[in-house]
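PROTEIN DESIGN WORKSHEET
SECTION A - STRUCTURE
LENGTH: 541
TOKENS:
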């Protein structure tokens, strides 16, 4: 074993608790349900589980509106259930990350209830309150991500409060000296219990312009999503946010072996700052480049090269293909390409995060209008297709029984089960030697056992064929690997004779071939990905 840390070596698997496994037949997933599936996750070969929020919440934004940071939402279970889940995960060698939502609370959090009670309440300035503009409207032009202004008027005290998501998610004021210590206490509470770290929600939004200046119009706006009509220079990525993150990291570092991933949607150059000048901020500022890159070999290769080129010294890379806010990979790139996408995610240099269900190729599920639950889709039905997230949050497809084994037959799950569940499910794919699940599992185990794949360096390989993307993973004194991905629907031949004469096919996306190949005339089938071993003894580089 090399000296990489667990969060560098291993794969993070995101569980969306409402949709993973229901144990008490109420149509909602829960903690005992997750515990009952830990053996599946351990066998899959992941390292850590990230749970989307499990805290008490009126669910105005499905748990990202937290009413109590140090308790468990009764719909998911209780603290005993959590303690058992954590212990059971650790027994299986799995780490557990929680979702910390420090930028905003629920309007039902006690802090906000006090804050809104009167203008002179000691917690008044824990949130961002302002008088109306002269015309009686909101204090400035800031917008909510989910539609409409980022301000709501509170009759009781005659002022507006800030929220960049739904009105029921008031934003905390990190300029008030007591707020950060309170959030650090929350972190300590869970770290003392033994959680292995946090995924931190919208970490780059935690500080706003104190003068509340209007944001300028975005000259490149395409006219679709109103939130994109402004340049968010006063609500995002303010320089002072780094100091807050350093404090969070400093506290985390008091505990051994813990880590913090920051949710940050920013261009690369700005994203890198979130590692911290002295590697003292996020262990991983989430890298969402693959989500926004067109699915072609050339574009993906460019994204990989650009990311690798700007990583600061000592910064560990990470990759994401999907999450609870983004389209399902199989729907974005097609079912055939979804295997190539998983091979890419799991063989690039750095820590991958795998969203639940991606290992069986789950797709976006059409949601009938009467079943829509996601706030942005309800608030802006005209662009629901674009911004609605219900389609990617549907129940995990475990087997071919009614409700896909997510909940008992006869129960109505909180979101509809995918219509393809009888064919796309864990049990069936487990039996099928050529399935996506078998492929992902083999790849995860290969990745674990090969230092070059989990910790090695990466060199992209120039090719004269723009349908293919190839790279090499190398680690001292270990076998190296060539990864070859065909992004197209045509079988292609390529000459990699300059890398080595021969290699061995170790894994293919279709699990249908193995053995030695001649690299000077390597054939790659349509939609195929290959992991080729270059044994240490014959390495030429
Ligand atoms: C980002 C989360 O991923 C998303 O689901 C949520 O709606 C917003 N933050 C607000 O917390």
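SECTION B - SEQUENCE
RESIDUE ASSIGNMENT:
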């Amino acid at each position: 074993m090399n000296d990489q840390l667990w969060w560098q070596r291993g794969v993070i698997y995101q569980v969306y608790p409402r949709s993973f496994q229901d144990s008490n037949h109420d149509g909602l997933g829960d903690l005992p349900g997750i515990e009952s599936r830990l053996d599946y996750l351990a066998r899959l070969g992941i390292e850590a589980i990230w749970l989307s929020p499990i805290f008490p919440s009126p669910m105005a934004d499905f748990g990202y509106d937290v009413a109590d940071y140090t308790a468990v939402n009764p719909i998911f279970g209780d603290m005993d259930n959590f303690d058992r889940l954590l212990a059971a995960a650790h027994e299986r060698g799995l780490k557990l990350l929680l979702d910390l939502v420090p930028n905003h609370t629920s309007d039902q959090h006690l802090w906000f209830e006090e804050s809104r009670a009167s203008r002179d309440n000691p917690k008044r300035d824990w949130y961002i309150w302002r008088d109306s503009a002269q015309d009686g409207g909101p204090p400035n032009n800031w917008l909510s991500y989910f539609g409409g202004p980022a301000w709501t008027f509170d009759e009781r005290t005659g002022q507006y409060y800030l929220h960049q998501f739904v009105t029921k998610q008031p934003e905390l004021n990190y300029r008030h000296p007591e707020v950060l210590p309170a959030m650090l206490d929350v972190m300590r509470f869970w770290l003392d219990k033994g959680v292995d770290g946090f995924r931190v929600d919208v970490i780059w939004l935690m500080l706003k312009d104190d003068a509340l200046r209007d944001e300028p119009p975005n000259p490149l706006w395409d006219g679709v999503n109103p939130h994109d009509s402004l340049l968010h220079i006063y609500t995002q990525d303010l320089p002072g946010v780094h100091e807050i993150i350093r404090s969070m990291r400093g506290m985390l570092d008091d505990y051994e072996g813990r880590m913090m991933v920051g949710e940050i949607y920013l261009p690369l150059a700005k994203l890198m700052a979130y590692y911290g000048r002295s590697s003292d901020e996020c262990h991983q500022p989430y890298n969402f480049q693959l989500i926004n890159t067109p699915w072609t070999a050339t574009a993906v290769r460019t994204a990989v090269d650009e990311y690798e080129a700007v990583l600061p010294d000592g910064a560990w890379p990470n990759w994401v293909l999907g999450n609870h806010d983004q389209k399902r990979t199989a729907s974005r790139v097609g079912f055939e390409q979804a295997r190539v996408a998983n091979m890419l995610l799991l063989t690039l240099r750095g820590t991958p995060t795998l969203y639940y269900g991606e290992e069986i190729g789950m797709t976006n599920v059409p949601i009938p209008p009467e079943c829509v639950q996601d706030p942005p889709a309800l608030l802006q039905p005209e662009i629901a297709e674009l911004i609605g997230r219900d389609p990617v949050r549907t129940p995990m497809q475990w087997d071919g029984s009614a409700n896909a084994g997510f909940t008992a037959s006869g129960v109505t799950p909180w979101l509809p089960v995918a219509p393809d569940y009888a064919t796309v499910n864990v049990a069936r794919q487990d039996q099928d030697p050529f399935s996506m699940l078998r492929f992902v599992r083999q790849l995860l185990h290969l990745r674990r056992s090969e230092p070059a794949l989990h910790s090695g360096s990466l060199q992209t390989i120039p090719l004269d064929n723009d349908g293919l993307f190839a790279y090499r993973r190398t680690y001292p004194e270990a076998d190296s690997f060539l990864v070859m991905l065909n992004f197209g629907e045509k079988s292609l031949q390529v000459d990699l004779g300059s890398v080595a004469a021969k290699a061995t096919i170790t894994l293919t996306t279709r699990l249908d071939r193995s053995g030695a190949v001649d690299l000077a005339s390597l054939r790659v089938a349509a939609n195929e990905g290959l992991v080729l071993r270059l044994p240490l003894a014959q390495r030429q580089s």
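SECTION C - NOTES
Residues 456-534 form a domain with the Immunoglobulin-like fold (CATH 2.60.40.1180).
The longest strand covers residues 468-474.
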